[in-house]
Amino acid sequence: MRTFLASLLAAVCLACALPAAAQPATAAIEANQATEAQLDGINGLGPATTRRILAARDQQPFADWRDLIARVKGIGPASAERLSHQGLRVVGQPYGAVPAPAPADSR
């Protein structure tokens, strides 16, 4: 009986875990290559911000997240974090993967 219950519990756990594992991961969308439609598909990016991203990128590709934040009005650290969780990448990196600037030498 104990073996049956253990097997039943394992089967239930497996059945519950499979749907979560079957969910596709958020596809990465590179800010320097994404189309307008791809950017519009990101939750939290509206048409106006999408146009600002494309206009800034047309001038020069983004070097990193700091560059995108500095050049695109309406995107700050909090929204960059949310957009990164939605799959947006800059030079292949999620937000937060960029190291913080080194502190100035105080000699």
- Tell me, what's the shape? extended
CATH class of the domain at 30-89: Mainly Alpha
Q: Reading side by side through the largest sheet, how are the strands ordered?
A: 1-2
| Helical residue percent band | 40-55%
**What's the helix count?**
5
Helix/strand structural class: mainly alpha
CATH architecture of the domain at 30-89: Orthogonal Bundle
- Secondary structure tally: strands: 2
Rg calc: 21 Å
Mean pLDDT: 82
Written overview of the protein:
There is one protein chain. The protein has 107 residues and is mostly helical. The chain has a domain at 30-89: DNA polymerase, domain 1. It has five helices and two strands, in the order αβααααβ. The protein has helices spanning 2-22, 36-40, 47-59, 65-71, 77-85, and strands at 29-30, 88-89. It has a two-stranded parallel ribbon with strand order 1-2. The radius of gyration is 21 Å and the shape is extended. Residues 18-24 have low confidence and may be disordered. Residues 1-22 form the signal peptide. This is Competence protein ComEA.
